[in-house]
Design a protein that fits this description.
Number of helices: 11
Structural class: alpha/beta
Largest sheet: 6 strands, parallel
Radius of gyration: 19 Å
CATH architecture of the largest domain: 3-Layer(aba) Sandwich
Helix content: 25-40%
Oligomer: single chain
Bound molecules: pantoate
CATH class of the largest domain: Alpha Beta
Order of helices and strands: EHEHEHHEHHHEHEHHHEEEE
CATH superfamily of the largest domain: HUPs
Length: 269
């Protein structure tokens, strides 16, 4: 496994390589990331993982500062899973300019959920993805369904620029108690992890009722009784029509964002 820190070097290493699988991450790797790596390896792709905590996608500075960083463990995980290249850029490799001006405007699917509650978040995500993809000319891009809205927005961005990159959506990996694996779980104590488990099981057991309800205040109340102070949204979406829905179809997913002990968690099922 090679660890590469500069844009020029990673571009050089990957030049003329035909079958590249790229897994962009912000580090603090867990079994969810590992499942993406494994998918890439299974396809016999030259597997590249980037680790870069992108300041541009944090609408809250405190959230950026406390984002967990576990670089030496991350590298061990990559090595164990036979990653070929880890791209570990400093901020200046990604954003060499003094003043970063985000030119891309996202109109697609961003007025809901994460787009609504985290202004500028998706613009920051697309900016970093755009720049990473300049450094890593990949054929396949592996993205997790846990960040479903991100997955759809990145796919649409690639379509809009006529990119040939194939996006591989990967299922959410869950802990035994049902919670989606996430780097942010590292910030939770055991009590909060147990509470998150109760919440996700409550949501799963009531999925159809949540979808069909015109007013979800009773569900919000119940979630708050588990100890949640703030819920940004609990909403059912038709992923084909990209609209809120009260119909349970194969395209319907329920999305939630809530705070537990000051940590913002998202999930969908
Ligand atoms: O999903 C993430 O970890 C990040 O949003 C991504 C895609 C690596 C961009 O920083």
């Amino acid at each position: 496994m090679k660890i590469i820190k500069t844009a020029n070097k990673i571009a050089f290493e990957l030049q003329n390589k035909k079958k590249i699988g790229f897994i962009p991450t912000m580090g603090c790797l867990h079994k969810g990331h590992v499942s993406l790596i494994k998918k890439s390896k299974k396809k016999k792709l030259l597997t590249v993982v980037s680790i870069f905590v992108n300041p541009l996608q944090f609408n809250n500075k405190k959230d950026f500062i406390k984002y967990p960083k576990t670089i030496s463990t991350d590298l061990k995980i990559c090595k164990k899973n036979k990653v070929d290249f880890v791209y570990l850029p400093q901020k200046k490799e990604i954003y060499p300019e003094k003043k970063i001006i985000i030119k891309n405007k996202i109109h697609f699917f961003k007025k809901y959920m994460e787009g609504k509650f985290r202004p500028g978040h998706f613009e920051g995500v697309i900016e970093v993805v755009k720049r990473l993809l300049k450094h890593i000319k990949t054929n396949y891009l592996f993205l997790g369904k846990k960040d479903y809205q991100q997955l759809i927005i990145i796919k649409e961005y690639l379509r809009s620029i006529n990119s040939k990159i194939i996006v591989v959506p990967c299922d959410t990996i869950r802990a035994k108690n049902g919670i989606a694996l996430s780097s942010r779980n590292k910030l939770l104590d055991q009590k909060s992890l147990n509470t998150a488990g109760k919440i996700i099981n409550f949501l799963k057991n009531n999925k159809n009722k949540i979808i069909k309800s015109k007013d979800n205040s009773l569900f919000l109340k119940k979630i708050k009784e588990f100890g949640v102070k703030k819920i940004d949204y609990l909403t059912a979406f038709d992923l084909k029509k990209l609209k809120k829905t009260n119909k349970s179809t194969v395209n319907t997913r329920v999305f939630i964002a809530y705070y537990l002990n000051g940590v913002r968690l998202i999930d969908n099922f």
